[in-house]
Specification:
By secondary structure, this protein is of the alpha/beta class. Helices cover 37% and strands 19% of the residues. It has 2 domains: 3-201, inorganic pyrophosphatase (n-terminal core); 207-323, Diaminopimelate Epimerase, Chain A, domain 1 (Roll). It is built from 12 helices and 12 strands. The longest helix has 16 residues, at 27-42. The chain starts with a helix and ends with a helix. The structure holds manganese (II) ion (MN). Manganese (II) ion binds next to loops. Manganese (II) ion is lined by residues 28, 90, 116, 135-136, 167.
Length: 326
């Protein structure tokens, strides 16, 4: 039985579901999660959607009904006992749900992963997806079409469109295939408005984000090979700009807009460590680079979090590790 039919069988045979996605969710995380919620609700199932992180403010429009709850151990202690099936979307390492990880590991029901990242952890009863998909939302589309489980209506199409549009870099990254455009054409037939969705996601930021971008751009430096550009965001610059962590999403891509640069790195100072984002062009596998530093991701987009260190202590080490991949 293929993955999609196995997933459908589990849905057919169970009644209560818990959905979650990764820390600092993006539009694909939320879109795949909410599309799956809508599918299950159409089937009359009991569904809860609980995430470690709050929904970023520019993506709140995706959760119009306020279905998603931010995990609070005091309020949500029973969610793990009440569900028969626990589904993680757009991640494949249980550590990516942070405070919910323990609840997941000790979960007694069926554990499912729906995802498109590399190297899934071997803790799932069912894994659905592969790195061939541009987005987890594309997997959900494939699941719906393969099984005919529900019709794709306006509400589901909006979620899937937001997920695919953002994870393909607005239809320009490598896996933007003819098939992706056929899927998008079908989603647009439901009446969703691409201008409006793009505007809500990318053109409604608070001014603090744009100020912070200015500061981040002014820190950009190029390494000795001339092929790596990096930027640094400190706690102070975040405060000065009046921005928050979610605001830095996408900044690292500016490194790749410079002539001859093939690898971009963003160092972001955390309270107790450093978050590092990697982006690359061509076949430079930044997921392998990230995995040397406790992280992971995709071939052209990956990240790590290192705790108990400062940017200045690790910057040179990370850059020389990166140079080996050029
Ligand atoms: Mn994704």
């Amino acid at each position: 039985m293929n993955q999609f039919l196995q997933l459908k069988k589990i849905i057919d045979e169970h009644n209560s579901f818990l959905l979650s996605t990764h820390v600092n969710p993006d539009a694909d995380a939320l879109g795949s999660e909410l599309a799956f919620y809508l599918i299950l609700r159409k089937l009359g199932k009991k569904v809860r959607v609980v995430n470690h992180s709050a929904t970023p403010y520019n993506l709140e429009f995706m959760d119009e009904e306020k279905v998603i709850k931010k995990f609070d151990p005091a309020i949500h202690e029973n969610i793990f006992n009440e569900a028969e099936v626990f589904i993680l979307l757009d991640l494949n390492q249980a550590g990516r749900i942070i405070k919910m990880e323990n609840g997941f590991r000790s979960f007694g029901g069926i554990k499912i992963c729906i995802d498109h990242h590399q190297d899934p952890e071997k803790v799932f009863d069912l894994y659905v997806g592969s790195t061939d998909y541009s987005a987890t939302s594309e997997i959900i589309y494939g699941f719906i079409k393969n099984t005919g489980i529900v019709e794709i209506d306006y509400a589901i199409a909006l979620q899937l469109y937001a997920g695919i549009m953002t994870d393909t870099g607005s239809f320009r990254f490598e896996r933007t295939s003819p098939n992706i455009h056929r899927i998008i054409a079908e989603l647009l037939e439901t009446g969703i408005n691409p201008t409006d969705i793009y505007d809500k996601i990318y053109n409604q930021f608070k001014s603090g984000r744009v100020k912070l971008l200015g500061e981040a751009l002014s820190t950009i430096a190029v390494d000795s090979t001339g092929q790596i550009a990096y930027m640094v965001i400190t706690k102070e610059s975040l405060q000065r700009a009046g921005a928050e962590e979610a605001d830095i999403d996408g900044f690292v891509n500016y490194c790749l807009t410079i002539q001859s640069i093939r690898l971009g790195i963003l160092f972001y100072e955390l309270k107790d460590g450093v978050k590092i984002s990697f982006r690359s062009k061509e076949q430079i596998p930044v997921n392998k680079l990230a995995s040397q530093f406790n992280g992971g991701g995709h071939i052209n987009a990956a990240g790590s979090r290192l705790f108990g260190v400062k940017v200045d202590e690790i910057k040179d080490k990370i850059i020389s590790a990166a140079q080996k991949y050029l």
